[in-house]
Amino acid sequence: MARSRSSSSSSSKWRYCDPSYYLKRPKRLALLLIVFVSATLVVWDRQTLVREHEISKNEQLSSTTVANADSRNILVEVSKLSEEVTRLQNMLEELKDSNGNAVGKIENNGKHGKIPGNKVFEDDPTDIQRREKVKEAMIHAWSSYEKYAWGQDELQPQTKNGVNSFGGLGATLIDALDTLYIMGLDEQFQRARDWVANSLDFNKDYEASVFETTIRVVGGLLSAYDLSEDKVFLEKARDIADRLLPAWNTHSGIPYNIINLARGNPHNPSWTGGDSILADSGTEQVEFIALSQRTGDPKYQQKAERVIEELNKTFPADGLLPIYINPERGARSYSTITFGAMGDSFYEYLLKVWIQGNKTSAVRPYRDMWETSMKGLLTLIRRTTPSSFAYICEKNGESLTDKMDELACFAPGMLALGSFGYGPDESEKFLSLAEELAWTCYNFYQSTPTKLAGENYFFHSGEDMTVGTSWNILRPETVESLFYLWRLTGNKTYKEWGWNIFQAFEKNSRVESGYVGLKDVSTSHTAALHHIYLSLYIFLLHDLSIITVTIPKLVNTGVKDNMMQSFFLAETLKYLYLLFSPPTVIPLDEWVFNTEAHPLRIVTRNDGERSVHSNMQHKPPNVRLPGRKEGRHGDE
Q: Are strands 464-467 and 510-511 parallel, antiparallel or unpaired?
């Protein structure tokens, strides 16, 4: 009997290891799954904590070693800091008015001279504090780049190494030059300037994007020249521009979008079917006009302006161009019309060349084309339900797609900037639309758990907006528009929105060695576990006496990528810094920003400078007559 009882007891225990036991008892199977998933999660989190502890410990040991090695210099550094504090205290006393109130004065007292637009003004204490926070973020980003990726195009913060994503042109360094200057980071600017003078070499066997190289490198160098008046930047800008010029050697003057910097062989990417891209072909005018003005050589301006002259010959009545254009025939190909990727900055530069030329009759044709395009933009505006968010549709043929890229969030700033060239009624209409679109773009950020925007959004009746492509790569377009709206309206709400976005970047994107994007702004690595728990919970709901299931809260941890984009330093942080700076710093009546946020001085153009675009004057928009074969290279 004893043996029999023992055998029965043993058999009873081992039955829990038999899969058939659970297949007949689904509730217990569910319980087993919950226990397994919970144990897996605990082990996973524990291992993560152990790894983080080991990394932290190693970093502390490394820091201690460095500190010991530098201990002999500490007293010297403390002495220097003490002297600097004393100097700043004396400056503050000098800036106090008769009532003892502090009066801010933005100056660059380093060897590079003063920040353009320098005047005495009253500065809000909150703005001062926030501006310093943004400056500290720039220092963190720059010092990480300087430490781990110096001279390379971009920093990969997670692996602490550089990558030459633009052929080794020092893209981040050049993109950041004017940001360093504006923020008064003189020592960093000087080191960067020395690298440009001594190490920057454009003779590379590399297939470069004409567009990216123009807006980042040519624009960055010209801006550094305008700010510092150091001719090394102008010489380098001319060097790289000369290497890009063969791209414009086409029958129509529409440039190819890729060129080998060493051999000068231009072509288009295969995925466009041989076509040139609208934004890539129509976003060099600001930089090349500026280069001709500063060098006295008209060839750059002539090449860039011929593109606009050619497009104006067949400019449609609604001013909306598809994203693909044949570079030999100048013909528009049947393709998407968008204010997002591959279309955006063409429309931006129609307005900015007008501003760059100080709004004279010589550049009026650009303004006329822009106003025509804005009439077309109005036909793309739709509003969501139930919240009535305004957004800009994309167009394919006669059909509209309810999709908007975050890239298109430059449009509120553009509309606000251009609204002041209209009469009172039209001005109010476009400024109001700019404010509506800015509200939508801000909600691109506010609608996600991380408070960072996805790459694009879709709109559905009754649902407002949903994230499409859900990564965030530190883009600047929304804060760019907030900057313009603050400058042009004085509404401090835009500062608050900008500050919220900055805090979201600090919370989600800041890492030990710089800033990174997020792979998904709307889900986390616990999402799958969340769904498992939820499914099991629903399964067991009808009999809660068996088990109580606690559903974990879905908290977004923001899975990070491994790239600090150069435009984060060139645009995002610069616009945030200027958002909290007085309007006398880089005033908009003296400077125009290129599409990479590089400020260039406004130079008045007269009638004698109209040259290649004189045929645009007073010409009404034309539409091609039908008859050509429609299709990939046909007309719309």
A: unpaired
The residues of the chain scoring below 70 in pLDDT are: 1-27, 29-30, 32, 35-121, 523-558, 607-636
Structure tokens at 635: 């007309």
> What is the DSSP secondary structure assignment for residue 399, as one 8-state letter?
E
Q: Between the CA atoms of 576, 580, 583 and 586, what dihedral angle is there, to the nearest 10 degrees?
A: -40
Q: What are phi and psi of 588, to 5 degrees?
A: -75, -10
Token pair recorded at residue 372? 């025509």
pLDDT score recorded for residue 122: 75
Tell me how crowded residue 111 is: count the other CB atoms within 10 A of its CB.
10
Residues 6+ apart with CB under 8 A from 128: 104, 580
Catalytic positions, please? 212, 344, 455, 477
Strands 154-156 and 161-163: antiparallel
Measured from the Cβ of residue 633, the count of other Cβ atoms closer than 10 Å reads 19
> Residue 602: which of 299, 360, 284, 279 has the closest Cα?
360
- Give the ranges where 457-587 is alpha helix by DSSP (H): 477-489, 493-508, 527-540, 566-567, 573-579
Q: What is the DSSP string of 75-96?
A: HHHHHHHHHHHHHHHHHHHHTB
- Residue 9 CB-half CA count within 13 A: 6
Residue 522 confidence (pLDDT): 87
Structure tokens at 122: 């009253």
Q: Which residues contact 72 (CB under 8 A, 6 or more apart)?
A: none
Structure token digits, residue 173? 């360094």
Residue 35: closest CA among 525, 544, 553, 536: 536
Rama region for 627: left / alpha / beta (φ>0; ψ in -120 to 50; rest): left
Q: Output the pLDDT for position 552.
A: 42
Q: What is the DSSP string of 402-416?
A: -EEEGGGGGHHHHHH
Handedness of CA 437, 439, 442, 443 (dihedral sign): negative
Helices and strands (H, E) in the chain, number of each type: 22, 18
185, amino acid identity: L
How far is it, in rounded angstroms, from Cα 78 to Cα 72? 11
Distance CA 544, CA 539 (A): 10
Q: Residue 127 has what pLDDT?
A: 98
- How far, in whole angstroms, is CA 220 from its chain's centroid? 15
Q: Which helix (H) or strand (E) holds 549?
A: none
Beta bridge partners of 102: 96
Residue 140 DSSP one-character state = H
The pLDDT tens digits of the residues spanning 373-386 come to 999 999 999 999 99
pLDDT tens readout for residues 492-549: 999 999 999 999 999 999 999 999 999 999 864 444 344 444 444 444 444 433 333 4
| Residues 216 and 166: beta-carbon distance below 8 Å | yes
